[in-house]
Amino acid sequence: MKKLWFGLFLCLVLTAVPSTAFAQLSAFQGNWRNNDPATGGVTRLQIATSPNVTVHAWGKCSPSDCDLGTKDGFAYGPTVGSNLNSTARAISVVFGSGFSEAIFIIHPVPGGRLQLEVYDRFTDGSGRTAYVTSETFIKETGPSASVDCLPYNVDTLQIVNEGANGWLLTDGSQRMQMLATQADAQKALAVARSHRAQCFIGRGNNRPNRKNFIMLWWRGDSGIPFSISGEDCISYNTSGLRIENEGANGWLLTDGNSRMVTLDNQADAEQALTVTRRFTKECFIGRNNTRPNRGDYIMRYWR
Question: Residue 92's domain spans which residues?
Answer without folding.
Answer: 2-139
